[in-house]
Amino acid sequence: MKATADLTPPPYFQRHIFFCLNERKAGENCCAAHEAQKGFDRCKAQVKAAGLNGPGQVRVNKAGCLDRCAGGPVAVVYPEGVWYTYVDESDIDEIVQSHLKNGHVVTRLLMAGSVGR
Fold this sequence. Notes:
This protein is α+β, with helices and mostly antiparallel strands. The protein is 23% helix and 18% strand.
């Protein structure tokens, strides 16, 4: 039997990072209340500055509710499915340099698996 070539094209992006930017009303806990937009903006700028953006590399995406509000702000990196919580710009910079650039998970920023809404 003759082997067939893998016809699956390479992924358009090596990694996606999604930032929850959801805002809830009536004082409910949400990522927007924890300055998630700043984290998204910082990540997008750092990815671009490092030359990591574009096809075959990294895409920084906005997301609605990721249903893990209690750990906010949150971001998730795919295809690995690694969930992060972060506090400031240095956390974002570490995620960019360590995970998005070099493929090494930032263990100190991992969100506990039990954290939900």
